Amino acid sequence: MPQPRGYVFGPVASRRYGKSLGVDLVRMKTCTFSCVFCQLGPTPPEGHVAERTGDPPMPEILASLRSWMAAHDAPDFITAGGSGEPTLHRDFGDVFRYVRGETGCSSLLLSNGSLFDRPEVRAEAALADVVKVSLGAWDGESFGRLVRPAPGVAPFEKILEGYRAFRESFAGRLDCEVFLVPGINDSEDACRRIAGKIETFSPDTVSLNTAVRPGAEDWLRPVPKDRLDALRGIFGPRAAEAGAEPQGGSVPGAVEPTPQAVAELVSRHPVSVRALAAATGLSERDVLALAGEAGAVITATGGERFVAMRGRDGIRG
User: Residue 130: which CATH number?
Assistant: First the structure.
């Protein structure tokens, strides 16, 4: 079956950042967390790490990005994110240097924030135009239940100290995502506690999110929309609901109708069947056939079918 081999994927129609071209900076799947809600499934033991490396080689990543940019229209954002935590790459700031020096695009870092206690990570992150970090916990116990950090990840309060230090030095836009999971952090009391922690580092925006795609655990369910609406006020005027899967889930015409192209995209960003049909120009029936050729699986959440390159035991490839 086709296996992902490149570093650039999309562009996808982001719910928050428009036409976003992804740049994957880690091997599948390598992450400091194994979040219960991760759309890419559980983090395998060999990839559940906090040690930063220079793998994959940054020259290869940048060559792949330059090649894509030379052949396509510019996206709204070039985004460091993908199949794990991008700040695990010790040279991740080079992507933002390239974007600033050689393109007219904006740059975006999608990070879980787990390494922001480290000054060198904060310095590289500050090269991005927009940085999105996450906070769905209020203490060490809730942090552990929600994200299941790898050995070597700093304690919860140390990460918060890193957020505050970053906010003091960062001149760009800082966004914070709060991922709400029923039974863990969706009570009013939990949200008030989380909102109090967020207030200490003053992000520009706060987005409430929940499971609109299949997550790492079978028991995961979304917080209903009316519940999200009721909780949003706790987070103040900067808060907004992240929203449902966008109608365009992927940019129309952005994905070649080939098994390899589908594998490249959905291995990092599961996409609804209807969105993938729009992105490839195929019928939904033909998309299902193409997904099968790509070795993808079809999962469902909230009545929506999604194409993903993973099964119950996590990422394929």
Answer: 3.20.20.70
